[in-house]
Amino acid sequence: AKIQSLNSTEKLILMSIFLLFINIFVQGIFIIGILIYAFRKKEWIQDIKNTPGYKILYPFFLLELFVSCFYKNLYGIGISIGLILVFMYIAFVRNHLNYKLFQIIIEIMILMSFFINLIGLFQFYRISIFNGYSFFDFHIFNSPKRRIYSTFLNANYYAMILEFLIVCCMVRFVQCKKGLEKIKYVGIGVFDLVLMYLTGCRAAFLPFVVMVPAFL
User: Fold this and answer.
1) What's the sign of the alpha-carbon dihedral 142, 148, 154, 155?
2) Interatomic CA distance for residues 175 and 73, integer angstroms
3) What is the model's pLDDT at position 48?
4) pLDDT beyond 90 at 118
């Protein structure tokens, strides 16, 4: 019911968040589609102008693109174009995000954490068995090829997403009033924390030293 009450622009933003958990390349194509949609509605210029620091940000990216083209750096050209598109997308989202949409996005992200974590558990099971360990040994490998990444590019990226999901659980834990709902978010947060440990990305735990006390 909440999703049905959203307008077409808000549904596009919600779909782009959903696709993040499916495939980042599919999400990238969808985001380009959103930018074309904004361009056709002639909103993209105003979205960019409403972004703080846009007079410095976009000229810097254009300069980076020019330098990359001058030195025929194809990788740099791709990164520069990618950054421009990402920040145009961020500008679009900033100007259409509201409290209701924000709450739905958080719920969708928490719901999708089950999906990506089940895939992560299956990957961990296969890696453990293939390397002669039991699943319940919880042996964490250091090799990038033997670390879980779920639907994302690598284990570090997966761990970063899990960090955000844990924060989302913390936000909803504070906001909700019912005891059962609080237990639900604690359970999901712990599940995300366990999978973050299984990624083998130890650096992902460092932000919690500052983040959790500051949030509380």
Assistant:
1) negative
2) 48
3) 85
4) yes
- 10 Å CB burial of residue 19 (0-12, 13-18, 19+) is middle
Joined together, the tokens standing for residue 90 give 């961020």
Asked whether the beta carbons of 151 and 116 are under 8 A apart, the reply is: yes
- DSSP H helical segments within the chain, as ranges? 8-20, 24-40, 44-49, 54-70, 74-94, 99-130, 155-175, 179-198, 206-215
Q: Cα(87)–Cα(54) distance, rounded to whole angstroms?
A: 10
Q: Considering only CA atoms, which of 15, 204, 189 is closest in space to residue 93?
A: 15
pLDDT reading at 186 higher than 90: yes
Dihedral angle over CA of 198, 152, 34, 69, nearest 10: 120
**pTM here?**
0.84
Burial class (CB in 10 A: 0-12, 13-18, 19+), 169: buried
Look at residues 11, 18, 178, 10 and name the one whose alpha carbon lies nearest to residue 106. Answer: 18
On the 0-12 / 13-18 / 19+ scale of CB atoms within 10 A, 198 is buried
pLDDT tens track for 120-150:
999 999 999 999 899 888 888 888 888 999 9
User: What's the half-sphere exposure (Cβ side, CA atoms, 13 Å) at 150?
Assistant: 28
- For residue 61, the tally of other CB atoms under 10 A from its CB is 19
User: Do the Cβ atoms of 14 and 101 come closer than 8 Å?
Assistant: yes
